[in-house]
Amino acid sequence: MSVEIIALVVFLLVVASLCAFFYARPAKGNDIVFVGLQNAGKTTMVSKLLKQEKDFLTATSIVPNVASYKLEDSKKIQLIDIPGADRLRFNAIQKFKSSVCGIILVINSEKIQKEVRDVAELLFSLLTDEKIHRMNPRLLIAANQQDCAISGVKITELLENELTLVRKTQGAALRDTNDDERVSVYLGKKNSDSFKFSDLPMKVEVHECSGKEGKLDAIRSWIQSCA
């Protein structure tokens, strides 16, 4: 076989591989999704980002709140406030996960030590979701209501430790289930006994903030860079 034919074959294989790669990749999403437990401050935070005091603000969200948000370059994206109740949250996440480019996990840092297990289980369900994994969104942990609360660094440590435990308990529970029911995305590194956010393929940041007081500059900057 001549050198020219070999080169042509190699070229065609490379082109075919590149086409398969790009067509297999999901389109980049255009939504920023706010998730968290009830009373974490998601709706208040989104309202302040939109500079609305009344129209968007509700006591408890029972349906996703969706609003257009203009970036500095005049590009518009969607901010989606997902309800905090378990039964409502799951269905809402299923609806919007195919269009997500960023996830903001809003945490009530005044209650995180009591709620850390529930927050970790919520985060585990997001990070091991196959569709979300393929979308590879950025993740922001928003340590909300920072007055007299623990720091973002401490919250990171609490979540990493709790996610390590959740990963073990979920793995033990799933060993007795059928293969089709198992979590297809492993959280973190398989050869590591402890979980770290740095193990994830997505970029993870933690910022302290206060939606109630409108101290959201770090959140605005993150949204701008994410979109």
Automatic annotation (TrEMBL):
Its main location: endoplasmic reticulum. One of its GO terms (molecular function) is GTP binding. The chain crosses the membrane at residues 6-24. Gene3D superfamilies: P-loop containing nucleotide triphosphate hydrolases (3.40.50.300). It is a single-pass membrane protein. It is found in: Endoplasmic reticulum membrane. InterPro entries: P-loop_NTPase (IPR027417), Small_GTPase_ARF (IPR024156), SRP_receptor_beta_su (IPR019009). GO terms for cellular component: endoplasmic reticulum membrane. Keywords: Endoplasmic reticulum, GTP-binding, Membrane, Nucleotide-binding, Receptor, Transmembrane, Transmembrane helix. Pfam families: SRPRB. Signal peptide: none annotated. Belongs to the SRP receptor beta subunit family. PANTHER family: ADP RIBOSYLATION FACTOR-RELATED. This is Signal recognition particle receptor subunit beta. It comes from Oikopleura dioica (Tunicate).
